[in-house]
Probable GTP-binding protein EngB
Amino acid sequence: MTGSELEADEAQPDGSGAELEAGRKLFAQRCDFVMAGVKPDDVPASDRPEIAFAGRSNVGKSSLVNALTGRKTLARASNTPGRTRQLIFFDLAGRLMLVDLPGYGYAKAPKQDVALWTGLTRAYLKGRPQLRRVLLLIDSRHGLKDSDREVMTALDKAAVSYQVVLTKADKPKPDELSRCAEATAAELAKHVAAHPAVAVTSAESGQGIAELRAELALLALPAAAG
């Protein structure tokens, strides 16, 4: 992705009812499992814009995908860290591809598995021109960790636009959540590929889900006429 594309990707929704409705309509449409890839050659050919979901193991990637699409079992959520070991692709209404990436930062996983997941993810991130944005999920109870910072630095170097999404916002106290969001935004300001807005979400309560849908709808292909 070029620098100009990164700049263009920083466009933000104005929070209008029309944009919220556009996001609702897009994510209410059919969303189908396409495939799960275990090596770089497995990823499907596609001309659709893609949004990838990245984050530490058990941060809530699958739960967020399910919340955005209004489905309970589209992406398999698990309390077992390190369960997602593939690139999992979902086609949203033929307008947007959602990609669930393997979790990182799970120290108890076998080193061979960690190396495989890391190589698979890096190959995807570097070789996917239609990738419009990576959503980097951060547990709002804990904030940024060193493993998250390593990913942010790698995305900066690869010129891949990314946005931090704080998850599980229903868990911390309001003042703790505010401090986490502020600290995260301040750190993101130092990263060239980071989207300036921090999304604060809860798959459990629905907080921030409509607003995130509106943002992602701006990156999708236009709806078919008629």
